[in-house]
Each structure stands twice: as structure tokens, then as C-alpha cells.
Amino acid sequence: MSRLLPRNHKKRPKKTKRNTPSKQIISSTIEHIDTLGQGVSKVNDTTTFTAKTLAGETCDVRVVKQRKGVQFAQLIQVTDASELRQESDCPHYADCSGCHYLHTSYEHELTLKQQALTHHLRGLSQHPSLKHFDAAMADLTVIASESRFGYRNRMQLHYNKQRIGLVNGLTNTLVEIPQCRLIKDELRDALHSVHQLNSFPKPPTKTDYKGKVSQTNGHCEIYLHDGEVHTNWNKAYAHGGFTQVNDDINQKLLANLRQRFTDTQPTSVLDLFSGQGNLSSPLCDMAQQTNQPIIRTMVDAYPNTHDDFHQANLYDDSALAQFTRVTTQPHYDLMIVDPPRKGFPNLNDWVCKITPNELIYISCYPISLARDLRTLTRKHIIKDIVLFDMFPGTHHFETLVHIQFK
Question: Which helix (H) or strand (E) element contains residue 179?
Fold first, then answer.
């Protein structure tokens, strides 16, 4: 006899089989490299991404993840290598997802980054308020790092009960990296020490929507600040104060800005996402040296000790109104914007209200950079574009776009 069910009973939907990847090893020919440094190919008529490959190579791969009509594969071996391939100098490179280009030369890495930036910004050529974009892209400048290794002054690691390292996003495993080549020599002892620990601090917990509490992976940050090495456990990134991770490229960036300030001679600057004023500091130094008055206002969510600082969350829609109520400066000659990866969706509102003569936008994520620049409604030209290779070995880089409004 069948069991009677209540009238409001809802049948559970039938479970469908997950489209789990096969463990079979498949041959794949790489057609091109995408903007994240992954090789793109067709495997069983499905677009497949394989890291640490080069265009034209034939490889044996294993598909390990499938999502939204594409799939991601793990490189097993290269059966027909590109002439641009070289052996990596890092012992962790095969398993670690922190670097993306160590299997080719630094020169070729820079070429791939330039191609990636061009790809992301290409849509701006049709912008109705923008002139001379094609000329700016044709004159794109690439500023290389002095060294491909030993440049990072900070590193964040993750850990569970057993190990500490970087998370491999493809396999979702922790990869230990005690001999990472990217960090400065001053950090090597600290990096080695955390890998030698038998236990780690208890990581934080999280609560899901049902109220269930579970433990998360912890994180550890090792960083160099004012000549001293620090190790923080489970604190916010850059808890000890944000600095650019590559001192060499940061100095080249500041020198580039100093030349721009010399050429344009702004008497007032609004520095958004300012931090401690790293990017506008050359202008203040120049003003002191020449005894010329300069008005600088820094705005950021994180406080600093400067008198010309205004604290505000720039992602809050009310931030602009709050700022205009407290500022005594109706106009700034120059606006500098240096947001996090998610960019600055309110850029156009600030540009229209502040009416700067020029805008310098510095970005670590070209996708959000292109999105924000497309929102500009004031007539403008792009004076030039510069790629600063702040993160050698990886697919990341910084981009400076200098805009002049009409």
C-alpha cells in the first residue's frame, strides 16, 4: 500500500548526474594564449583552457573542471614544444598557480601582456567622447622590471590543518612554496619558517545562511616594511599598511608621474584611493623644492595622518556629495585615481562634478579600467598609455592612462 502524503507535500526534484570530467588524457593543440595566460584549444569540440602552454604547442592534457560550456585542463606533458618554451627556474612552477609565464622568456611575457591590454582596451576606439585612442595604443609604452625574481616585498599564504602555501584554483589544493622565487631575499627566512611549523593558529570561522558554523582556511601574510620583516596571521591584507609589491617598478612609476607633473604644472590635485599619498607625493616634493604652492586632497576609506586627507568610502553613492560639502576647493587641475581590482564605477560622476583638466587613472585590472573609461561623458583625448610590469612572472600588470579633457 502506498504511503499517503500531505496535500502540501512537494516532491523533491530528481537528482541529475553531474557532468564530471573524464580522467582520460587527451591530446590538445593550443591555438592562442588568452589574456590570463592560458592556452586556448578545442578538445572534443569544447573550448578548453590549459595554463602554462604556448601557441602552436601540442600537449597531453587532462580535463579537470567544466563550467558554462567551457572546460579547464591540467597540463600533463608537452609533446611538440614551441621554440619560445624554456625550462622554469622555479622548483614549484609545475604545481603552483601563482605564476603563469615562467615557461617562456621575459621578453615574450611582456609581449603577451601588451597583447592582453590591447585586447581589453580595444572597445574604447568607438567611444563617442574620445579622440586619438588609436594613436595612443600605437604608442603604448611598456616599462619592464629590472628583475623577474626577488621583487615581492609581501606575500599572502593560505593554510589548513596540514599545510601552508598557495591555493591551486584548478585542483583546489594547497601547494607548498618554501623556495618561491618571487619574494625578496629579506623574506626568505620568514617564508621558510612558516613552512616548518607543525601547527598553525586556529583559523577564523564562517556562518552559512542556515546558521551553520564551519572553519575556513586561515591565511598568513609575510611582508617587509621599513626594513623589518613582519608576519601576520588571519588579519586583513596589508594590515601593516599598503605598499606596492614591487619597489623597482613603483620607483619607475613615480619617476614617470614626476615628469608628467613637470610638463603639466598642476596647482591642485585630487588623489582618490590615495593610501598614504604614494602617487601624488612627487608633486608635493616638487612644490617644496620650487616653493610653489600646491593644493592636494587625498581621499580613501583607510585613514592616514596627513592634514590634507578626507576619509570616505568611494564606493558609497553618497561619497561625492559628502566630499563636496566639506571641500573648499571647487575645482582641481588634476585627478589621480588608483582603485582596487573592481575599479571605480562612479568615476564619471566625480569627473563631471570636480571638472579636472586632466585625469591619470592607474589600474591593476584592465577589464574594470576599460569599463570605467567607457562611462566618461566629457570630451577627452588619451594623451598616452603605459604598461608597468609590476608583477613579473604572472599575468597581472599595472596600466596608466593619461586623459586630457577638452
Answer: none
